[in-house]
Amino acid sequence: GTGIHAVWQGVDRGDRFTPVERATFRHVVRHTPESLRDLLRSRSYYLTGDGDRRAELERDLDALLSSHPDLAGRDEFDLPYVTVAYRARRR
User: Do residues 18 and 89 make contact, with C-beta atoms less than 8 angstroms apart?
Assistant: First the structure.
């Protein structure tokens, strides 16, 4: 892994814990262009952005919705998610 994933896998937790285990879970959420816009508007970087930043994000989303081959002209689409979970058990 890279980034944060490499950090979790490479840390020695000592004798009190088992080695770190990793599990990956994939799922999809059905969206419409408007529900994706609502999702954007719920994000902290949108909520804390000034008016110019919010307008930029809205324009970027409009461009994505109109140009991406999996999104353009679609009333609904699946948005894939990947959740990665780590655990180390206490011995």
Answer: yes
